[in-house]
Amino acid sequence: MILVLDDVMSKEYSDSLDNFPYWLKFFYTEKTVYAGNEYEIYHDENILDSGQLSTPLYVLNEYKETTYDIITPILYVIKQKVPQIKFNHEVRVKYNIIPKNTDFTPSNYNIPHHDAVSNAYTIVYYCNDSDGDTFLFDKTSKDTPTILKTTKLEVIKRVTPKKGRVVLFNGNRYHSSSGPTKGVRCILNFNVSI
Prior knowledge:
By secondary structure, the chain is mostly beta strands. The chain has helices at about 10-15, 75-80, 145-150, and strands spanning about 1-5, 25-30, 50-60, 65, 90-100, 120-125, 135-140, 155-160, 165-170, 175, 185-194.
């Protein structure tokens, strides 16, 4: 299941998130995905990893950013707009910023990965208009790393960042961000249990 919703929040709410990242402490990672072993990382000719700025906002039973309550209304509104989607609680939420990178072409993407093994949804809320599409692939975590080494991931959907847009999909689906070439790409990444 892949669901794209536009204008999830009011314009006023969406605009208020423009200043949200200035209150947070970010760290830079050279890769957009961390994997413990190199064999866990999928490789193909379209990967050009840009790195990103990231900060955790919530980690179940471990951490909650003091400003986290500002963004929780997004989840309540999604539950109202799509009542057939049932989820329990957040497991992990983070804010990611990918800086402008003019080396990217429309076919390039960062390292494909999945956010959860099972029983979760990934929800990406786009905080701004930008390029740097989200790529959604045909495989899930049920496909072992060995299969990924011998099988090419196929793109089944691309979602362009638009302020107030949400893409929701099963947390075990392989997906990837891509580097924006015109500005920065800012998203909230929610992992919620089902």
